[in-house]
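Quick start: load a record and inspect it. Here is transketolase:
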Amino acid sequence: QSSSVNSIVIFFSFKIMSVLFFHSMKYRPEDPRNPNNDRFILSKKQQFVDVATGSLGQGLGAACGMAYTGKYFDKASYRVFCLLGDGELSEGSVWEAMAFASYYQLDNLVAILDINRLGQSDPTPLQHHVEKYQRRCEAFGWHAIIVDGHSVEELCKVLSQPRHQPLAIIAKTIKGKGIPAAEDKMGWHGKPLPKDMAEGVIKELQSRIISCNKRLYPAPPNDDTSPVSLRNVRMPSAPSYKPGDKIATRKAYGMALAKLGRYNEHVVALDGDTKNSTFSELFKNEHPNRYVECYIAEQNMVSMAIGCAVRDRNVVFASTFATFFSRAYDQLRMAAISESNINLCGSHCGVSIGEDGPSQMGLEDLAMFRAIPTATVFYPSDGVSTEKAVELAANTKGLCFIRTSRPENNIIYNCNEDFHVGQAKVVYKTNDDHVTVVGAGVTLHEALAAADMLKKERINIRVIDPFTIKPLDHKTIIDNARATRGRIITVEDHYYEGGLGEAVCSAVVNETGFTVHRLAVSQVPRSGKPQELLRIFGIDRDAIAQAVRKVLSSSANAK
Ligand SMILES: Cc1ncc(C[n+]2csc(CCOP(=O)(O)OP(=O)(O)O)c2C)c(N)n1
Ligand SMILES: *[C@@H]1O[C@H](CO)[C@@H](O)[C@H](O)[C@H]1NC(C)=O
Ligand SMILES: *[C@@H]1O[C@H](CO)[C@@H](O)[C@H](O)[C@H]1NC(C)=O
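Running the structure step on this input writes:
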């Protein structure tokens, strides 16, 4: 039963798929992931080959990543074919990808638009007006050809043409063709045919297969894609910061990425017109051929990253302001489903960016990335740990997010300090501490300043830098907090929901006698000076010192 249902679903794009797989594509059928093979992306639903689809509108962006890699990084002859539905052409992300492909002249990319007139609950807005699709594609810089999507001859012919531009094949089709009861009719989307109807259709299909005794073999690909090894992408030397140096972690990110790229030729960087804010421009300056400007199209940038990382061709780092990854959250969620290995750097986190105001502040990004099962979330607090985060991210599977800050802060670590994913650092301690404070990024520095202030009042606190928020080092936090009678204060430049404080709460949920007091941003902020905003939102040194005093006086009262 289930195999017959699959056959019928495939049947809807039967001719297009057959022509691609038995006429146009070059590949080794016994080795589907061979780097020389042409790529195929079934954007219009179903899990297939390199990237998971199903959330519509994302396939062409991933296809752009594969085509860009083929043309500019691998410099190989494989081609990329992407089959799209007409329903998903209402997604803006498709048109971000269309603009990208023509700007970068991805002449190794073919998009086949299956114009079957029907979506899920309604006909598509343009129905069968194929000439309107053609004009749109042409306006985006593509060569666009209309064909009868049920004509094998027409499909073969158009797919054989030489190309100098990305090619859009606008295939006019009838949804459910060959099944009289379902042909061109609403109400059949995603539904299996009833058993008797399915049997009839399968019989009809089989009769056609039997009548053809010619065997079809795909053409083998050219073996012109060099093997790549992405194992052990290392920095050849330790960071070279000096105690007393001040640097913003966003700048340390750019310096670290440029350094990593110096010794590893498959490291590539993407950015969305923010390179002089995220400092990915330091990578671009040194490695211009391995930098891809994705312009202000963050959804496409994330899909591009996924496409570039496919088949382990590149170690990809994509950067923008942390907050702008929120508009690509669906792409990030799908990256997890695709088991994609991509690295993202979000700069300008929190209110500490200052004057640029709330629209530019990343205040939800920890919540967003923590919720993704395959994600590792780095939140480095100085130049040394940022460089280590970049190196670790390059070697960590899944989706890695590095959260960077705008203000300049002191170097706090020794250059030979060892860092690991899931390993926190105790950055300040005495043998008589009363409260454990967990901070990261700018708030770690505020916590250190609070420790100095409180020392004058003879109150000692312990300060912990989690380094990774996910996975969080439960053991270090619990062991140290136990030494401060279970008293914990968390302080973060992020909204309360889903951030550092909630991560620490869930780490200690089973401990008895622990209390967690959280400091975070509770309202939509405004523009202001960084230090002013830290004070107004209660996450600066004074707020931390005050919280420590309060925790101590309330536990004294409780006795
Ligand atoms: C979604 C998003 N991505 C990136 C940015 C960062 N950013 C702010 S202004 C700007 C350039 C905008 O250029 P344009 O639209 O031409 O504006 P104009 O030159 O007229 O100021 C960028 C990339 C942003 N604010 N929003
Ligand atoms: C980025 O570069 C542009 C062009 O040189 C400049 O106008 C802009 O101020 C720079 N932005 C930042 C944040 O430095
Ligand atoms: C808390 O205890 C429950 C029940 O034993 C366990 O499943 C869970 O993993 C524990 N959580 C943590 C964070 O230790």
